[in-house]
Design a protein that fits this description.
InterPro entries: NAD(P)-bd_dom_sf, SDR_fam. Belongs to the short-chain dehydrogenases/reductases (SDR) family. Keywords: Chloroplast, NADP, Oxidoreductase, Plastid. The chain has 161 residues and is of the alpha/beta class. It is built from 4 helices and 5 strands, in the order βαβαβαβαβ. Helix 3 packs parallel to helix 4. The mean pLDDT is 87.
């Protein structure tokens, strides 16, 4: 057996149920699947969505599937006041952040359409939303005992059907 391929002492996990992750735009699609995977790994996850009803339904479905370490907070990354309110909520309820997954985004294009429709809204949400949220959460990262991680997800276009 090759000890490089199968180490005798595997690297211990750096995460636990106390590890807190936030996933934006997580009520469906890629964001929802990322939340599910993080929960399967045993982390505590805050699922965010700009629509409170859709976010609550997503969390309810995960809890029915047996995941208890999932929480919801409404967040619209295109709205600076929503980002401020979310950062305050997270600080009050968790006090620390270990992982941020910037997944929330908008697209106004159909499949195969290479034009840029509604460029101001797209840039405000997809670029500045992630930037402002990350900046707003940096103080919570600094409280983490682990090495904090930020994952920015980018996809050209997705279809849910």
């Amino acid at each position: 057996m090759d000890h490089l391929t199968y180490p005798l002492h595997p690297t211990p996990r750096w995460w636990s149920k106390e590890t807190t992750a936030v996933v934006t735009g997580a009520n469906k699609g890629i964001g929802f699947e990322v939340v599910k995977k993080l929960l399967e790994l045993g982390l505590t996850v805050v699922l965010t969505a700009r629509n409170a009803e859709n976010g609550s339904l997503a969390v309810d479905s995960l809890r029915r599937a047996g995941f208890q370490n999932v929480h919801f907070c409404c967040l619209d990354v295109s709205d600076p006041s929503s980002i401020t309110a979310f950062a305050s909520w997270l600080r009050h309820n968790f006090g620390v952040l270990d992982i941020l997954v910037n997944n929330a985004a908008v697209s106004f294009n159909a499949v195969g359409d290479n034009t840029i429709k509604e460029p101001e809204t797209t840039i405000k949400t997809n670029f500045y939303g992630a930037k402002l949220l990350t900046e707003g959460l940096l103080p919570l990262f600094r409280r983490s005992v682990s090495v904090s991680r930020i994952l920015n997800i980018s996809s050209r276009l997705g279809a849910l059907n």
